[in-house]
Amino acid sequence: MTAKSIYKRVVLKLSGEALQGKRAHGIDQPVLVTFARQIKEIRGMGVDVAIVLGGGNIFRGQENVASRGLDMDRSVADYMGMLATVINGLALQDVLEKTGVPTRVMTAIEIQRVAELYIRRKAIRHLEKGRVVIFVAGTGNPYFTTDTAAALRAMEINADAILKATKVDGVYSADPLKVKGARKFDRLKYIDVLKRGLKVMDATAISLCMDNKLPIIVFNLNKVGNIKRVLQGAKIGTVVE
After folding, report:
1. Distances in whole angstroms, Cα of residue 232 to Cα of each of 5, 6, 47, 220, 225
2. Residue 82: which domain range?
3. Would you say residue 4 lies in a domain?
4. 135: CB partners within 8 A, 6+ apart
5. Which of 23, 45, 99, 220 lies at a CB distance of 3.0 to 4.6 Å from 169, suitable for a disulfide?
6. 126 in a structural domain
7. At 106, is the secondary structure helix, strand, or coil?
8. How far apart are CA 201 and CA 186, in angstroms?
9. Taking 60 as the threshold, does the pLDDT of residue 67 lie above it?
10. Residues 49, 51, 53, CA angle at the centre, nearest 5°?
11. Is residue 20 part of a domain?
12. Phi and psi for 153 in degrees, rounded to 5?
């Protein structure tokens, strides 16, 4: 018998890089299929699932913005990044629906031919009807990251937690892929994340979660089944609360 989830509604934050798998850029279709199957599994547990996607596998605005006069304007770069998340959202929706999971893509920037404009009440209604909702185009504003979008949307839809999927198995004192002996944290307080400058989510997102007491669970996405394990309360990754 499948164990019940400790959360009723969650926001799953996926980076764009997660979708590219081992490719240098773009979207790795087998990776999308793996994600879709895991998402279908947790939907089968009765969990309402919303997803916020990054766009770094297609376009990283920060790499085009610097101090030289001919570099790209920050607002332009950020809008391009938002559009990249729309591409990722459509790709994930396609795979989810082929897997048998009804899905809606909701965008913060109006693109009516390909996605619904984000309206809070409609998003909640979709979730209540058992649909997975993919939020794209960030907050719709430049200078805000998709981490902040995840925190904002989680608050708006009354989510119980943010599941931050990463390439490592939690939050460390330093990058464990670069620093030998970096220490892993099992639990952290929001204020400690801010004081230490730990790379969990950006400071705006952490502050939003702190103000609204929304827990963040950071875990390794590359291990198949970890999303389900987190929802069942397994002690994996790092909990920020």
Report:
1. 5, 6, 11, 15, 11
2. 9-240
3. no
4. 50, 51, 52, 53, 89, 106, 107, 108, 118, 123, 149, 150, 153
5. 220
6. yes
7. strand
8. 16
9. no
10. 170
11. yes
12. -65, -40
pLDDT of residue 211 exceeding 80: yes
Determine the average pLDDT of the residues in 222-227: 90
Encoded tokens for 66 = 């610097």
Q: List the one residue out of 146, 150, 161, 129 whose CA is nearest residue 43.
A: 129
Rounded CA-CA distance 30/221 in Å is 14
Structure tokens at 104: 């809606």
Task: Give which of 156, 176, 134 is closest to 12, Cα–Cα.
Answer: 134
pLDDT digits (tens, 9 = 90+) for 116-132: 999 999 999 999 999 99
Q: Which CATH number covers residue 190?
A: 3.40.1160.10
Residue 39 CB partners (closer than 8 Å, separation 6+): 12, 49, 51, 96, 101, 132, 227
Q: Residue 64 carries which DSSP code?
A: G
User: Is residue 2 one of the residues assigned to a domain?
Assistant: no
Residue 173 in tokens:
């004192």
Q: How many other C-beta atoms are found inside a 10 Å radius of the C-beta of residue 202?
A: 15
C-alpha span between 174 and 184 (Å, rounded): 9
Residue keyed to tokens 């390439």 = 167
Q: Are strands 171-172 and 184-185 parallel, antiparallel or unpaired?
A: antiparallel
Mean pLDDT of the chain: 92
Count of structural domains, the chain: 1
pTM: 0.93
